[in-house]
């Protein structure tokens, strides 16, 4: 059955909360407090979207070098969710983690790039599966996390690699671009965390990795800098709230580019795996 193309993400609203938002994800988010969860202990304030795996474009690609992972290897490797997997950092992270022996679950909007990346990882002997994912849609995030959980029985780590950078001066008044950056960079990370957090709490272990720059805010980087500060605040709050869940923040602009970022992410996850061994 041919796979449909990923839907386009909404461009964003006006930024004026007093007016009806043109962003469907934002409108849905405003209704969260009126909806009760349908999965006890998991969806605390919204039901899982009713959709089949085919409708969610689930693409299983799970073989490794031997074609059938050994029980020891299966038990040792982590199941790692990577959002924004077709971006430079997301793709580099997926390759690095797969090369370390982890099972990577890729999420992104661009289905053609997802399939190519999954095939590349599989050809190199990695273990991978991928899902079409719009991080600005809370239902997509929940379906993404639950599909991995139902398939593997656990979600060990989340890497929030989805991000948008659109520098502009404030007097350029690019409200749609500002909305898009905040929706993807901040709301997307929150939705992904909300999707995996109950699973990690239940397991008593987990690791969340956010990408946020700690450098100073300069001209044309007001909104981008604000989203980075928000991710730092989210990470610090989560670290203080959840003693059993590791939280890491990696700078996406470190020297060495995307590969250096990917290696840093691999290093923090490796430390967690060794600490739990």
Could you explain the architecture of this structure?
With 277 residues, the protein is α/β, with parallel strands linked by helices. It has one domain (56-276): NAD(P)-binding Rossmann-like Domain (Rossmann fold, 3-Layer(aba) Sandwich). It is built from eight helices and seven strands. The protein has helices at residues 24-30, 71-76, 88-99, 111-123, 138-152, 175-203, 222-241, 257-276; strands at residues 59-61, 79-83, 103-108, 127-132, 157-160, 206-211, 245-250. It has a seven-stranded mixed sheet, sandwiched between helices. Strand 6, helix 7 (222-241) and strand 7 form a beta-alpha-beta unit. Helix 3 packs across helix 8 (257-276) and helix 5 (138-152) runs parallel beside helix 6. Keywords: Oxidoreductase.
């Amino acid at each position: 059955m041919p796979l449909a193309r990923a839907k386009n993400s909404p461009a964003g609203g006006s930024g004026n909360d007093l007016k009806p938002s043109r962003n469907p994800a934002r409108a849905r988010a405003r209704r969260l407090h009126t909806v009760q969860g349908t999965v006890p202990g998991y969806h605390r304030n919204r039901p899982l979207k009713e959709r089949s795996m085919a409708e969610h474009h689930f693409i299983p690609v799970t073989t490794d070098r031997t074609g059938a992972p050994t029980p020891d290897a299966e038990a040792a490797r982590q199941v790692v969710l990577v959002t924004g997997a077709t971006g430079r950092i997301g793709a580099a992270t997926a390759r690095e983690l797969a090369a370390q022996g982890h099972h990577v679950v890729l999420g992104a909007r661009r289905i053609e790039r997802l399939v190519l990346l999954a095939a590349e990882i599989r050809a190199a002997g990695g273990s991978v599966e991928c899902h079409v994912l719009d991080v600005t849609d809370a239902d997509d995030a929940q379906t993404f996390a639950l599909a991995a959980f139902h398939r593997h029985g656990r979600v060990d780590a989340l890497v929030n690699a989805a991000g948008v950078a659109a520098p502009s001066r404030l007097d350029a008044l690019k409200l749609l671009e500002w909305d898009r950056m905040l929706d993807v960079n901040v709301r997307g990370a929150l939705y992904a965390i909300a999707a995996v957090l109950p699973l990690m709490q239940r397991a008593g272990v987990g690791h969340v990795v956010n990408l946020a720059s700690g450098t100073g805010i300069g001209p044309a980087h007001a909104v981008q800098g604000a989203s980075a500060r928000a991710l730092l605040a989210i990470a610090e709050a989560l670290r203080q709230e959840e003693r059993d869940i590791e939280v890491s923040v990696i700078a996406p602009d470190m020297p060495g580019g995307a590969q250096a970022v990917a290696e840093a992410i691999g290093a923090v996850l490796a430390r967690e795996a060794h600490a739990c061994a």
